């Protein structure tokens, strides 16, 4: 089973639309997991044209209030229990706290976001994966991930979705282009 992993898209509050590279990367996946900070139903709608989407609420989804999503989900794939949370732990991305979230959910794979930084770590028998952000990375490349599960074989590949640059500049460049077209 091939699963696309994405988080922290922040559309339209920090980026106008998903990068085309995201859509191309997810072509052919069986499922897409979005681990929160979506901020617009349009993101889920666009991703669902590619594959079914499992999504959870991020802290900014609560702020924008457009989407009603659960704080966590558990799904099964090829005999593995996958937990999905936004990952609101501080410091951001703290793997010990994320590991305990995985234990609490009783999952062997935990997909999270919130840090906007791609991360992969295995602690004991739990895989922790954060696909990063394709639109608003923090001191990292914009990214998503592909997770392939084939029985006990699990492989995770991070895909860069754009050039590493200050995401605020990306947003304002896009907004200026859009305003110019509309004006």
Characteristic terms for this protein:
five-stranded mixed β-sheet; 183 residues; alpha/beta
Identify the strand order in the major beta sheet: 3-2-1-9-10
Strand content: 25-35%
Q: Roughly how much helix do the residues carry, as a percent range?
A: 25-40%
Q: Give the structural class.
A: alpha/beta
Detail the poorly predicted runs.
none
Largest sheet: 5 strands, mixed
Tally of separate helices: 5
**Termini Cα gap:** 46 Å
Give the total of beta strands.
Answer: 10
Shape: globular
Descriptive account of the structure:
The protein is of the alpha/beta class and 183 residues long. The protein has helices spanning 20-26, 41-48, 59-64, 95-105, 167-182; strands at 2-6, 31-34, 53-55, 72-77, 80-85, 109-111, 118-123, 126-131, 143-150, 153-160.
Tell me the layout of helices and strands:
Elements: E1 2-6, H1 20-26, E2 31-34, H2 41-48, E3 53-55, H3 59-64, E4 72-77, E5 80-85, H4 95-105, E6 109-111, E7 118-123, E8 126-131, E9 143-150, E10 153-160, H5 167-182
Short description:
By secondary structure, the chain is of the alpha/beta class.
């Amino acid at each position: 089973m091939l699963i696309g992993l994405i988080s922290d898209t922040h559309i339209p509050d920090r980026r106008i639309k998903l990068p085309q590279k995201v859509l191309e990367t997810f072509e052919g996946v069986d499922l897409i997991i979005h681990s929160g900070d979506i901020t617009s139903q349009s993101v889920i709608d666009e991703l669902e044209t590619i594959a079914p989407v499992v999504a959870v609420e991020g802290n900014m989804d609560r702020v924008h209030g457009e989407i009603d999503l659960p704080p966590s989900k558990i799904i099964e794939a090829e005999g593995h229990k996958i937990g999905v949370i936004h990952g609101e732990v501080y410091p951001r991305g703290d793997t010990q706290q994320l590991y305990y979230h995985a234990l609490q959910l009783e999952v062997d794979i935990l997909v999270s976001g919130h840090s906007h930084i791609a991360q992969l770590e295995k602690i004991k028998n739990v895989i922790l994966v954060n696909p990063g952000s394709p639109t608003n990375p923090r001191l990292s490349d914009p990214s998503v991930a592909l997770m392939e599960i084939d029985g006990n074989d699990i492989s995770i590949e991070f895909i860069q979705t754009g050039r590493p640059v200050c995401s605020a500049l990306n947003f304002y460049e896009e907004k200026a282009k859009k305003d110019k077209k509309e004006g």
